[in-house]
């Protein structure tokens, strides 16, 4: 297979990025970066207007796109077939289960052939639908369009909504009248997309992004006035903290939630008194995180205070919510991680995870009695879905597994009965019995057990010959759920095993699992992933150089590190919007995410130890003169999270340094950001490229495949 790839790559000469050495010295250590010039000095302007990108940089990115097309262009027919399959599994006129609120039930839906959602409502007990926002109509004049938030006012007369039309995650908020279907003249720009209505429906709260794309300020906008007349409600002073807002569980407050990856702090605004200053719950303490839910004059607080590594739930009086008044309700249990809590007038609901499996626990607040909702499969995913209404006994949740399409249930928390409200429909057909999902454990380098979730066809033969896609992330405490994804079936039906490595850096096995894969322990994530690959080879689910690694964003950093450290195991690596230039990014405190990321990765500006640690594993800085697998890096020009120049620099250095293997390719979406193409069908085009590359890397990229 390697010979075929070498011949194809040799047929077309790849772009060669000019070397323009830039050196700097920090903590007595000198680092030289030959490709620093690929970062446009006016990158902030590029986020707002991609047309201003430096012509030399644009020419290089377009040359890389042409090279990638020259190598993968022959898979065009295959890609179209993959898109058709994936689209065939999507119910085109799909809709959410309507969520009741007062006299109405609100929903989202798609029209057949539609790329974007529509927002609407109907009478609570059924009746004619009324669409207030038509995403397809709103997107027709934009190359990129993505909804942010959408929220009806308390009196059901107005709909606040936001959208990003550049891919740069600057959202503009508008107000629409339900009766007329017209937007007000109000336009609130440069926001993070969220909003909370005041109780009188005459104003709303929002978070404004600063010039470095950081959400630092909370403002109040009064309907009918210009944005320049808005009132600043709260401003965060620490550039390492981000600020967001949401409604409290009862709907009584706007919650201002601030924090970084280690510490948090929350404030409340009484929505009936929007002019009043925000009330602090508990002052920030380094390493202490908390989030609140309210019920009457009592707060229910999820926190890791008092060394509760996997979190606990405490209560506090609303009138005196400071730390001294916190009292344990659900004590800390090591290894049982409380992911979140939701509160209703009579019940407390918490979502927990133990041994990489989630569960929903319901507590009757009158009696203190608890029960769990039972599930049967070996690996599955659960999500509670919230409610507009506080005074209800109904809990809505979603369940799926890697073989079972998503199911939405309404569960009566008092009667303990569940009603299936929706089962994900696969128009082209899907028989769960044709597939098997299972979970195996492997032993990492230090003796720790790492879970792997697997999906394959029932007729799969475990003889070591099957190709396998191994997906991983392993950062920020994000767990990778063993949920249903119709797109994966296009690989599995072609003989692939699909595997998820639940590596350290996520919270798959609790918060301690996250702590054991960050900062000075970051390399545990990379070594866990390599251990998973070796275990799958040893167990004959696949063979050496039959694996394609896949990860995005921080998972793209994982891919870069694994390519450096264990590339010999892989036939191919796909790194989507990969965070590979870790050291340079963490040294640049003007970038949107850098100060808030220091608790996750370390601060190399101030700490020599952090500098040396990051330098030791940063994928870009550790590219070596060795053989690499075939690599496809995918970037977004207007990405404010992982800037386009990170993968561009990485591919340039790989190509200039590696001694064999490859080829290495870069594909930059010149009109999108971190999430790739907008529109549910346009996104399939990018997934098809990933899958075509994976099939190509293992020698299965035939047009009739």
Average pLDDT metric: 93
Q: Are there runs of 5+ residues with pLDDT below 50, and where?
A: none
Helix % is 10-25%
| Helix-and-strand structural type | alpha+beta
Quote the distance from N terminus to C terminus: 17 Å
Spatial strand arrangement across the major sheet: 31-32-34-33-35-36-38-40
Overall description:
The structure is a single chain. With 705 residues, the protein is α+β, with helices and mostly antiparallel strands. The strands form ten sheets. It has an eight-stranded mixed beta sheet, sandwiched between helices. A four-stranded antiparallel beta sheet has the order 3-4-5-6. A four-stranded antiparallel beta sheet has the order 7-8-9-10, with no helix packed on it. A hairpin with an 8-residue loop joins β17 (264-270) and β18 (279-280). α4 (76-88) packs across α14 and α8 packs across α9.
Short key terms for the protein model shown above:
705 residues, alpha+beta, 8-stranded mixed sheet, 14 helices, 40 strands
Briefly, what is this?
By secondary structure, this protein is an alpha+beta fold. The protein is 20% helix and 32% strand. An eight-stranded mixed beta sheet has the order 31-32-34-33-35-36-38-40, with helices on both faces.
Layout of strands and helices, then pairs:
Layout lengths: L1 H10 L10 E5 L2 E5 L9 H6 L6 H18 L3 H13 L10 E3 L2 E6 L8 E6 L6 E5 H5 L6 E7 L5 E7 L6 E7 L10 E4 L4 E2 L5 E7 L5 E8 L8 E5 L6 E6 L5 E7 L4 E7 L8 E2 L9 E6 L2 E6 L8 E6 L9 E4 L6 E7 L3 E8 L2 E8 L5 E3 L8 E4 L9 E7 L6 E6 L4 E7 L11 E9 L5 E9 L10 E4 L17 H4 L4 E5 L9 H5 L7 H16 L8 E6 L1 H13 L3 E7 L5 H6 L6 H8 L6 H10 L9 E2 L1 E7 L8 H13 L2 E2 L2 E6 L12 H16 L8
């Amino acid at each position: 297979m390697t010979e075929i790839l070498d011949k194809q790559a040799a047929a077309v000469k790849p772009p060669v990025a000019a070397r323009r050495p830039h050196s700097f010295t920090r903590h007595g250590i000198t680092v030289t970066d030959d490709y620093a010039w690929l970062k446009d000095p006016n990158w902030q302007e590029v986020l707002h207007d991609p047309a201003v990108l430096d012509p030399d940089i644009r020419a290089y990115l377009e040359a890389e796109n042409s090279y990638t097309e020259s190598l993968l262009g022959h898979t065009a027919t295959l890609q179209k077939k993959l898109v058709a399959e994936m689209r065939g599994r999507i119910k085109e006129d799909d809709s959410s289960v309507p969520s009741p609120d007062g006299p109405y039930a609100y929903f989202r839906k798609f029209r057949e052939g539609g790329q974007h959602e529509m927002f609407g409502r109907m009478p609570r007990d059924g009746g004619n639908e009324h669409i207030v926002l038509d995403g397809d109509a709103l997107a027709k004049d934009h190359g990129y369009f993505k909804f942010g938030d959408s929220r009806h006012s308390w009196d059901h007369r107005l709909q606040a909504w936001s959208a990003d039309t550049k891919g740069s995650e600057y959202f503009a908020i508008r107000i629409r009248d339900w009766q007329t279907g017209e937007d007000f003249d109000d336009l609130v720009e440069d926001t993070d997309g969220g909003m909370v209505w005041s109780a009188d429906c005459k104003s709303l709260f929002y978070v404004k992004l600063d010039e470095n794309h950081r959400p630092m300020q909370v403002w109040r906008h009064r309907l009918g006035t210009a944005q320049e007349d808005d009132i600043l409600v709260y401003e965060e002073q620490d550039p390492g903290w981000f600020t967001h807002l949401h409604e409290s569980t009862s709907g009584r407050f706007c919650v201002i939630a601030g924090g970084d990856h280690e510490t948090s702090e929350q404030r409340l605004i009484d929505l009936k008194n929007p002019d009043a200053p925000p009330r602090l719950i508990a002052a920030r303490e380094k390493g202490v995180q908390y989030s609140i839910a309210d019920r009457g004059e009592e707060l229910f607080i999820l926190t890791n205070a008092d060394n509760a590594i996997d979190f606990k739930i405490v209560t506090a009086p609303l009138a005196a919510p400071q730390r001294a008044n916190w009292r344990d309700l659900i004590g800390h249990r090591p290894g049982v991680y409380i992911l979140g809590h939701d509160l209703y007038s009579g019940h407390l609901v918490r979502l927990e995870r133990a041994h990489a499996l989630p569960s929903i626990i319901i507590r009757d607040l009158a009696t203190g009695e608890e029960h769990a909702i039972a599930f049967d499969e070996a690996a599955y995913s659960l999500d509670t879905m919230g409610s507009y209404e506080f005074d209800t006994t109904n809990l809505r949740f979603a369940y799926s597994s890697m073989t079972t399409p998503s199911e939405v249930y309404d569960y009566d928390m008092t009667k303990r009965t569940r009603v299936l409200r929706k089962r994900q429909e696969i128009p082209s057909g899907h028989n769960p019995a044709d597939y098997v999902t299972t979970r195996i454990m492997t032993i990492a380098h230090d003796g720790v057990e790492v879970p792997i979730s697997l999906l394959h066809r029932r007729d799969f033969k475990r003889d070591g010959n099957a190709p396998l896609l191994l997906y991983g992330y392993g950062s920020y405490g994000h767990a990778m759920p063993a949920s249903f994804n119709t797109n994966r079936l296009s690989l599995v039906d072609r003989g692939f095993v699909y595997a998820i490595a639940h590596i350290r850096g996520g919270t798959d096995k609790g918060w301690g699992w996250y702590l054991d894969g960050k900062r000075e322990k970051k390399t545990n994530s990379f070594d866990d992933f390599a251990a998973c690959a070796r275990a799958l080879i040893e167990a004959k689910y696949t063979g050496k150089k039959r694996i394609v690694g896949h990860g995005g964003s921080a998972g793209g950093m994982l891919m870069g590190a694994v390519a450096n450290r264990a590339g010999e195991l892989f036939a191919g690596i796909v790194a989507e919007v990969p965070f590979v230039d870790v050291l340079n990014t963490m040294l640049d405190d003007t970038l949107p995410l850098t100060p808030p990321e220091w608790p996750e990765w370390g601060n190399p500006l101030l700490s020599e130890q952090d500098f040396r640690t990051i330098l030791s594993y940063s994928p870009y800085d550790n590219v070596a003169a060795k053989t690499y697998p075939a690599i496809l890096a995918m970037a977004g020009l207007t990405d404010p999270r992982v800037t386009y120049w990170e993968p561009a620099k990485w591919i340039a250095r790989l190509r200039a340094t590696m001694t064999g293997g490859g080829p290495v390719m870069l594909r930059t979406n010149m009109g999108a950001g971190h999430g790739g193409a907008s529109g549910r069908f346009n996104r399939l085009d990018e997934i098809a490229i990933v899958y075509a590359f994976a099939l190509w890397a293992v020698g299965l990229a035939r047009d009739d495949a």
